[in-house]
Amino acid sequence: MLKELDHIPPGLLDLEATQLQAALGGPTLIHLEGRRQAPLLVTVLMHGNETTGWEAVRALLRPYASQTEELPRALSLFISNVSAAAVGLRRLDGQPDYNRVWPGCEDRGTAEHELMRQVMGTMAAREVFASIDVHNNTGMNPHYACVNVIDNRFLHLATMFGRTVVYFIRPCGVQSLAMSRICPAVTLECGKPGQLNGVEHARDYLHACLHLAQHPDHPVSPHDIDLFHTVATVKVPEETTFGFGEEEVDIRFEEDLDYLNFRELARGTRIGWIKPGCSNALEVIDEHGNDVLQRYFSFEGGELKLRLPVMPSMLTRDRRVVRQDCLGYLMERYNDHLL
Question: Which strand (E) or helix (H) includes residue 83?
């Protein structure tokens, strides 16, 4: 069951992410009053090792902790996978990914699915103003915001964080995609955890969101946004061995693979090497669930190369993330689709 509070427990803002499980006992939704009643929903620690959201919230709320100053807008804070945060992992073995179990996902039936339905139902009843889900990633990526709907209100909310914006509709079951049914929603990608500039960027953005009176609905100028569309997800099948520089694996990626993120790569760019006979060593799935491996990749003389010009994002060298989630994503420019 969802645990809900109407205050920040004493001392909570002094705790590291690893200490929240002991203090809270599980996922917790905290509702704080503000001058404007429609609340801003902020979700942190959807992945337990992505701590920038919690650090940003600690910095954001400390000035209001004495309750002598009122928040400019009501705030609902969802502190999510505290059990994984306690041991510094994205998720525990046996847990579903907390950012794949929100309403709208193909899978159903776990306690985590019910938990997210409760959060969403609670926030709908509170007439949520906007939803912000704060994340980190493991590869070399800029700070950027993601939207799941091409809507001027969503795009304005995203460009408040920066001009780089990514539009995607897969994977399903993510928080921002679910919340987009009831309010403008964005996901923030704040670089690697533990970086002060990521914490400060997220804190300043949340502070600005709390001061928003309404969502602009006029178009975002094309000069103020670089919009990209995620067209495919790249995964390594469970039975495929992989590495970054090792020889005796099925697929050997470039050692600096994550440095290719957010770079427009030409057709023929080498991504790695494939062992003979392992032509199905990758899974590439488009946003409609179709196998598009042959569309985007070729296998030439043992080399894995791009068949089309693309821009990757979230390519990672973290082996656990590759196994639990994916290797990364492929994107295309999308500014022509602005409203």
Answer: helix 82-85
Q: Are residues 156 and 241 in the same domain?
A: no
**What is the end-to-end Cα distance of the chain in Å, rounded?**
41
Nearest by Cα to 16 from 62, 56, 66, 54: 54
On whether both 140 and 165 belong to a single domain, the answer is yes
Cis omega (within 30 of 0) on the bond before 171? yes
Give the Cβ contact number of residue 197 at 10 Å.
11
The residue range of the domain holding 130 is 3-224
Same-domain status, 154 and 255: no
Same domain, residue pair 124 and 263: no
Q: Are residues 186 and 42 in the same domain?
A: yes
pLDDT, tens digit, 9 for 90 and up, residues 242-258: 999 877 899 999 999 99
Domain endpoint, select from 171, 203, 224: 224
Whether this prediction's pTM lies above 0.70 is answered by yes
Residue 339 pLDDT exceeds 70: no
State the Cα–Cα distance between residues 204 and 143, nearest whole angstrom.
Answer: 13
- In tens, the pLDDT along 310-328 reads 999 999 999 999 999 999 9
